[in-house]
Amino acid sequence: MKDKQEAVVAILFFYFIEFLDSISIGYEKADRQKIILINNFIGGGNLTDNRPMIELVGMGKEFVSKSSTVRALDDINLTIHEGEIFGIIGLSGAGKSTLVRCINFLEKPTSGAVLFDGIDLGSMKEKDLLKARQSMGMIFQQFNLLMQRTALQNICFPMEIAGFSKKEAKQRAKELLEVVGLSDKAKAYPSQLSGGQKQRIAIARALATNPKVLLCDEATSALDPTTTRSILSLLKEINQKLGITVIVITHEMSVIEEICNRVAIIDQSRIAEIGEVEEVFARPKSKIAKQLVFSGETHIDTFVGAHKCRIIFDGRTSFEPVIANMILECKAPVNILFADTKDIDGKAFGQMIIQLPDEESSRKKIYNYLNTNKITYEEVM
Amino acid sequence: MWSEATVKMISVGILESFYMIFLSSFIAYIIGLPLGVLLVVTDKDGIAPRVSLNKALGVIVNLIRSVPFIILLIAVMPFTRAIVGTSIGPNGVVVPLIIASAPYIARLVESSLNEVDQGVIEAAQSMGASPMQIIFKVLIPEAKPSLIIGGAIAVTTILSYSAMAGIVGGGGLGDIAIRYGYHRYETEIMFVTVIILVIMVQVIQELGTLWSKRSDKRIH
User: How far apart are alpha carbons A307 and A377 in whole angstroms?
Assistant: First the structure.
């Protein structure tokens, strides 16, 4: 009799737990959280990378005016994963600003779909769309702070919109001021702040409603190089500490290099190239990518000598004395015409253009050396 | 000429003028402010585009504004009588003053709100703000200094309109100036009332500018 009672209790308890599990988080999410936990515990690569946060599917945007139709974006297919810093780069007029505005539906795409965390924004009712936007913070080139409000009130602003209580909003705003390192500026008006400080307030404001994504539209383009670096490191810190997916729109390759994991290059309304930043830097395929990556040596054709070769350092070989060894081994002099190395994500990347000797045999030796040592190179005309 | 009666008459005139100006400014703003906001938000590039409504409002505003006040004053007399029971005296003037100044105020409000940085509005939209939230939390507070300046301009314009109302026996300083200065050739009294009007305009304008500057957080 007693055994039976215990068994019933145990079964009921089991179902109760199952029930709680199913209503509170759902199996899929629970599994994902376990994976994240395990992953964080073992300290391995980020498995959450695989979960798409924003998906653009065949997205296009046309601006129709009386006299003409302008195709600003054409057939954009892009998946941005949770927790990554994704860069979108292009020359001005390429359509990148329109692209970022399509992600939060400030501009409605004229074709294709935008999925945010798996949900199609185009299918949402206006009210739900406004709610969804609260999960996407955005910062701008011109900061766009409310000029008649103090720094603290500016940070409270999105929380007022989202319906936080005044007390709660103020409390959180103070915490955020600390995160961006401007606790002493709570009562300052934007006109009393420097550009970098304004952008920090804008970042705090964008983070106020706990967004999943932070959209940065040319966020550092109005700032000097030193301030740019400090803002970028703040964005990186936010990405790492809070796990927020960051999307960076820029026309500066240095910004991409500094913080992005992956990059999409937009040219003439389309995606010209997309990939890991290291890969795109080391081996740019499209014309526009080459132009952006090698912008430092635009006048390559003015270099003297008929035989030139570009050696690419892909992080592995950069600290080895490649050139010195090559000269010693091949016993052929080379002339260094151009060299540029960059620190990307902790690894050294770069390229060097050397002028090869005129004798055919020496050149062959050099190419052999490069091939056997698995050094990436290409001939430059 | 400066008998007790004259002084009393002028003091009453001042009070009547104040009464007309502030009552009609107040009611005209109740109509004009929302109308101005509508003109801005329903614009094709506004936050809640309603192109046909916007055009219709624009035409109505322009229509009323294009009628000279002196003609409007006479034209709306039956309407005025129906509403306040009289078409003369301060109360009889308030109605045409409101009709004439509300569209004017709407245009002033429209231009003030259009000064608000488009980027700030976009930032609010990116946070999921509804059009109503943008109106009350962004457009109006950000345009406040400019709205105050516009307010001073509106009040001084209403003051000059109210003086014109003397033609139909509207009461106030303008009425005195026309009756004594124009009809009875008593230039001194006209002179005095005009000077008082000038001082009133100066004071209202200066106060408006001062208030606007005080409230503007962009200048420090």
Answer: 13
